[in-house]
# Entry
Amino acid sequence: MLGKIALKYYNNGLNCSQCIIKAVGEFYNINIDKQSFRMLSAVSNGFGIGSLCSVLAAGVMVFGLMFDENTAKRLRIRLLAKWEEAFGSANCSNIKASPACKNGCERAVYYGAELIESLINSTLQKNT
# Structure
């Protein structure tokens, strides 16, 4: 479900990190204030140099927002490991050059959002 919401925002012009954060806010009913959201305008295209994929950066930020530090760090490791399995790299330039994203980052945004949702939900279930 989070993937569909994130894609809606991505297709309406938000960058990868913004659409993840906006979708998480909507789906989990978390208020992301305008100033915080505005900061994400600079977190795109691998931080502007094709480096770390901003879907991953947003996922890590979400974990820090929703969980204690140790849990967020564990989720970060799981996110990066599963992402590497799927895309072979956490590097924006490599991901964009891959056949999976030859038509843009929609697949990365959708997969990342679904993976983030899965990690969040499994953690929330363990904590209840």
